[in-house]
């Protein structure tokens, strides 16, 4: 990698770090190509990205971003994952680490708030942005459904009473 490629890589990572909601640092403990591909696929499905970057270049890219303190986690064979959804990258990384002993969660940051491995695991246990939206819509929709049921209940009871009288008169 020549100097211009390094500068382009640092600029690309810096732009990413200025746009995302969470960055998770993982330690690669000898993953095979197939395992690495499976991790990237899982990240992509969750709406996140996983990249192995040279630690020195990643440290340079962290300058002037909310994730400035992540340099302390960048030692050894590390990988970076990120997403705009504050939960997606953490959830995908933790789920993959549960089934694969070749990756270890080291730490991360969410919007400038430094998180250790336990913090990332706690973040992964939270519902995603889409799940929260669905719950909010359900909560907003529930009172309207109850009102419709209450309005319809007396009419249906009245119809059953009239039906019973009609059946009695017919008999």
Low-confidence stretches: none
Give the spatial strand order of the biggest sheet. 2-3-1-4-5
Beta-strand percentage range:
15-25%
Alpha plus pi helix count: 6
Structural class: alpha+beta
What's the total count of β strands? 5
CATH topology of the largest domain: Alpha-Beta Plaits
Q: Could you explain the architecture of this structure?
A:
With 171 residues, this protein is an alpha+beta fold. The chain is 59% helix and 16% strand. It contains 6 helices and 5 strands; from the N terminus they run αβαβαβαββαα. The protein has a 5-stranded antiparallel sheet with strand order 2-3-1-4-5. Helix 2 packs antiparallel against helix 4. The longest helix is centred in the last third of the chain and has 42 residues. The radius of gyration is 26 Å and the shape is elongated. The protein starts with a helix and ends with a helix. 27% of the residues are buried.
List the helices and strands and how they pair.
Layout: H1 3-19, E1 22-28, H2 33-46, E2 49-51, H3 55-62, E3 78-83, H4 88-99, E4 103-110, E5 113-116, H5 117-124, H6 129-170
Antiparallel strand pairs: 1-3, 1-4, 2-3, 4-5
Helix pairs in contact: 1-3, 2-4, 4-5
């Amino acid at each position: 990698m020549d100097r211009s490629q390094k500068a382009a890589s640092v600029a690309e990572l810096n732009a990413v770090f200025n746009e995302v909601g969470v960055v998770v640092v993982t330690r690669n403990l000898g993953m095979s190509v197939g395992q690495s591909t499976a991790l990237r696929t899982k990240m992509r499905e969750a709406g996140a990205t996983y990249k192995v970057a040279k630690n020195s270049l990643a440290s340079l890219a962290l300058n002037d971003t909310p994730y400035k303190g992540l340099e302390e986690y960048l030692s050894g064979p590390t990988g970076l994952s990120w997403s705009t959804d504050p939960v997606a990258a953490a959830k995908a990384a933790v789920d993959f680490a549960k089934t694969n002993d070749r990756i270890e969660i080291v730490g991360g940051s969410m919007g400038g708030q430094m998180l250790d491995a336990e913090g990332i695991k706690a973040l992964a246990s939270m519902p995603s942005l889409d799940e929260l939206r669905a719950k909010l819509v359900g909560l907003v929709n529930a009172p309207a459904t109850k009102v419709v049921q209450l309005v319809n209940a007396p009419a249906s009871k009245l119809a059953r009473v009239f039906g019973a009288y009609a059946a009695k008169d017919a008999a």
